Amino acid sequence: MKFGKIDDPSQIDFSLPQDHPDTSKVLQKLKKPDKPKFYVGCAKWNKQDLKNFYPRGIKDELGYYSSQFNSIELNAIFYRLFPKDQFESWRDKTPKDFKFFPKITRNISHIKRLKDNKPLIEEYIDHVILLKKKLGTVFLQLHDNFQPKDWDRVEEFVQNWPKNNPLAIEFRHTDWFNDNEVSEQLYKLLEDNGMANVLVDTAGRRDIMHMRMTNGEAFIRFVGANHPSDYDRLDAWVERLKSWTDQGLQQIDFFIHQNTEKESPLLSEYFVKKINKTMNLDIPVPRGLSGGESPKLDL
Predict the structure, then answer these.
(1) Total structural domains in the chain?
(2) What pLDDT score was predicted for residue 294?
(3) Residue 295: is its pLDDT beyond 70?
(4) Within-domain flag for 39
(5) pLDDT value for 5
(6) β-strand 167-170 against 138-141: which pairing, if any?
(7) Do 126 and 86 contact (CB within 8 A), yes or no?
(8) I need a surface site. Which of 46, 57, 65, 283 has the fewest CB within 10 A?
(9) Rounded distance between C-alpha atoms, residue 278 and residue 239, angstroms
(10) Is 270 among the domain residues?
(11) 148: domain range?
């Protein structure tokens, strides 16, 4: 992922911001689960991106990937809505507890920019529901230049979205967060409709690290910088997620990207082991890179 990429990550303060004051208010209204649902995955499963992840001779990439991870951020359908039988094939190749978290197509988010969205939503849902019980939360990523002046389009989209399908929305323009009146209006809309507010942790866009929960689900897109600091950043997330689950957070969706996709499985392996140890969970631990070695993997 090139979003937020910078030349020298060592110059960035990667400290996580303090929670928004209303995050604890949202979480404390929830019934605290015995254990939160916790999904960890990468953005893609193909060999070209996950270099050295697959054992030699593996032909069914999704089949192997889903034996190592419990979820995938389904970015492929951002570019085009695949035929229905493709969704059925993906569903049937994966274990019963595996979840797909599909991105909404760019025709809706970037080309149409949410205009005339109702028939497009219906078409999209008609495809992704074929994943059945393996359908996780759908997410809408708005363009970097999509601004609050188009508030009415966001409101209309939220109203048209079928409420029985969980949704998370990612806002990338800083004006959604640096104007208090705008941000409060946005948070209220998401909270009232039970939708998640996507958190994006990437080097060059610390301005959109809002740390505001709007429901019981934390949808986090972590973008590593191909730098040793990636591991310290994951440590900070483990600590923050432990705090949120102690307050009542019910579900965590944590997807690990890198600016240059090289070691996402290795970062994932480190993160899952750390989470399992810290929070007494049993998330499936993916194997890292063949021959790869994390500088901090001895937990």
Answers:
(1) 1
(2) 52
(3) no
(4) yes
(5) 86
(6) parallel
(7) no
(8) 57
(9) 8
(10) no
(11) 9-230+243-264
Percent of the chain with pLDDT over 70: 95
Burial of 144 from C-beta contacts in 10 A (0-12 / 13-18 / 19+): middle
What are the phi and psi torsion angles at 197 (to 5°)?
A: -105, 105
CA 78 to chain centre: 14
* Residue 205 pLDDT: 94
The CATH number of residue 16's host domain is 3.20.20.410
Look at residues 257, 248, 170 and name the one whose alpha carbon lies nearest to residue 209.
170
pLDDT (tens digit per residue) in 64-113? 999 999 999 999 999 999 999 999 999 999 999 999 999 999 999 999 99
Tell me how far CA of residue 184 lies from CA of 99, 145, 176, 214, in angstroms.
31, 20, 9, 11
Within 8 A by CB and 6+ apart from 260, the residues are: 226
Pairwise CA distance, residues 180 & 271, whole Å: 34
Pairing of strands 199-201, 196-197: unpaired
Gyration radius of the chain over CA positions: 18
DSSP assignment of 194-257: T-EE-EEE-TT-GGG------SSEEEEEEEE-SSTHHHHHHHHHHHHHHHHHHHT--EEEEEEE
Burial, 90: exposed, middle or buried (Cβ in 10 Å; 0-12, 13-18, 19+)?
buried
Token couple for 145 = 């230049």
CA 124 to chain centre: 19
Asked whether residue 173 is assigned to any structural domain, the reply reads yes
298 within domain boundaries: no
The pLDDT assigned to 291 comes to 44
Q: Tokens representing 110?
A: 């970037």
Which tokens in the block code for residue 279? 């929070």
The pLDDT value recorded for residue 12 is: 93
